[in-house]
Design brief:
With about 220 residues, the chain is of the alpha+beta class. Helix content is about 25%, strand content about 25%. The chain has three helices and eight strands.
């Protein structure tokens, strides 16, 4: 009686061999995965230029108010006039305007958007002692977190080390930063608001809008 050999393929009820794995399934899954990635990239970059139309003076006022609120929460009682005499040394109260960028369909480009701008307000104080900086930043961290800001970084410096607080919201469209330098007893802070289109922008205009705004005096305000 001859020996039996093992079959090389299983058979179905119809007598046709069945395949262990369908090669086409893997390719189809890969195609679907690539399409999903592309859709996510496009949807993530779409709307990156969908900025509101807001006059620079209004966005400047919004950025300044962010700084004013933080100034009050930290408990400062001094008055800071507009301008800066020496960056990193003297008091500061200034606006700055920058370009906004378009990442393109896949978020891989890096080009400026005509008529769009992003305003920032920077303020700084000299002669800020360690006790005031520490208590102020701790209080501010709690306040901002309770107000809906995401704390992305908070570092309590040890002896002789800097203190840092960074927050953002709306997926980073709005940001604030605070750093205290113990060697100089110097605190610098900034508030950046979302990008916007300047309604008065015209083709041929150079530079970002809002780079000529002047902030009001930064001073303590009465809080309820």
């Amino acid at each position: 009686m001859p020996e039996e050999t093992a079959p090389t393929a299983t058979s179905t009820a119809s007598g046709r061999p069945s395949s262990v794995g369908a090669p086409g399934c893997g390719c189809a899954a890969l195609v679907v995965f690539v399409l999903v990635v592309v859709v996510l990239l496009v949807s993530g970059s779409w709307g990156s230029t969908n900025f509101p139309r807001v006059a620079p003076k209004d966005m400047a006022a919004r950025a300044f108010q962010r700084s004013q609120d933080a100034y009050d929460v930290m408990g400062f009682k001094r008055t800071v006039k507009p301008g800066v005499e020496k960056i990193g040394v003297s008091t500061e109260n200034t606006f700055d305007s920058g370009f906004c960028y378009d990442g393109g369909m896949l978020g891989l480009e890096d080009k400026t958007v005509d008529g769009a701008y992003r305003l920032s307000h920077t303020w700084a104080l000299d002669h800020v002692p360690a006790s005031q900086a520490a208590s102020g930043l701790r209080h501010l961290r709690r306040h901002l977190k309770d107000s809906g800001w995401k704390v992305t970084s908070f570092r309590e410096g040890g002896r002789g080390q800097d203190w840092d607080l960074f927050v953002q919201r709306d997926d980073g469209a709005e940001r604030m930063s605070f750093t205290w330098f113990p060697d100089r007893e110097y605190l610098t802070a900034g508030a950046t608001v979302r990008c916007a289109y300047d309604p008065a922008w015209k083709a041929g205009d150079s530079g970002p809008a809002g780079d000529h705004e002047t902030p009001p005096v930064l001073r303590p305000t009465q809080r309820d």
